[in-house]
Amino acid sequence: QRAVHPDRFGQRPLKEQSYSEQHSSLINKAYQTLLNPLSRGLYLLELNGVEPAQETDSDADSAFLMEIMEINEKLAEPKNEDSLEEIETLIKVKQDELTEEVTAAFERDDLQEAKKLLAKMKYFANLEDKLKKKKIPS
């Protein structure tokens, strides 16, 4: 990023400035993709030619779906700081566990397992987004 940063090309020809801006943007996008375990995992699936699980895929087990429903119900309850902190901790723990599991699946080249785990990670990412919205003061 340092080598192609636009600030280093301010006095250069327009073609080099354009090159710098384009590549700087690509580097930033790549960094953001690799920074997040979910987007990184989805990208690794894509690199290996595996389509990510769709919302309509029903591979998720019933116990997992029940857990997601319960967390959603807790999020729907009136705002309670203690409850929100408890949910936030639960989501973080689950995301950390899933990140470890998906890492192990990729390490043993089990792309179908990684696909299933990433689908579960999407559910928790959605819950995290709902939680963030709930925590924003009205």
TrEMBL record:
Q: Where is this region: Disordered?
A: 1-21
Q: Give this protein's Gene Ontology molecular function annotations.
A: ATPase activator activity; protein-folding chaperone binding
The main place the protein resides is cytoplasm
- Transmembrane ranges, per UniProt, are none
Q: Which UniProt keywords apply?
A: Chaperone, Cytoplasm, Mitochondrion
Record Gene3D superfamilies: DnaJ domain (1.10.287.110), HscB, C-terminal domain (1.20.1280.20)
Compartments, record wording: Cytoplasm; Mitochondrion
One Gene Ontology term, aspect cellular component: mitochondrion
Domain Co-chaperone HscB C-terminal oligomerisation, by residue range, is 61-132
Q: Which SUPFAM superfamilies match?
A: Chaperone J-domain (SSF46565), HSC20 (HSCB), C-terminal oligomerisation domain (SSF47144)
Pfam name, any one:
HSCB_C
The name this protein carries in UniProt is HSC20 protein
Species this protein is from: Alca torda
Which gene name belongs to this protein?
Answer: Hscb
